[in-house]
What we know:
By secondary structure, this protein is α/β, with parallel strands linked by helices. The protein has a domain at 1-9 and 22-81: STAS domain (Transcription Regulator spoIIAA), CATH 3.30.750.24. Helix 1 runs parallel beside helix 2 (56-71). It starts with a strand and ends with a strand. It contains 3 helices and 5 strands; from the N terminus they run E-E-H-E-H-E-H-E.
Amino acid sequence: MPITVTSRDSALTIALSGEIDHQVARDMMDAITNAIAERLPARLILDLSGVSFMDSSGIAVLLRALRQVQHIGGTLRVTAIPPQARRVLDAAGVGRLITLD
């Protein structure tokens, strides 16, 4: 469950990589929660370019990040979405709640 966190101005970018499934979702959620709590970003960007697989657990990760960043008045954008992950997100209608680039 490798993640990379970078911060610039009021934006926090978290790059996720590997498989986002039930086995890693909880740890990934915890890492994202900690990064948000430490930096209190106005903008959170989740970069999925390194994600090789995502199931519905990945949707839960994104929705939890959305809820947390909205709680502090911030916004969430998901970028560099691989085709397989895009199909999962589109099928669930996640784009109605989260900006997907």
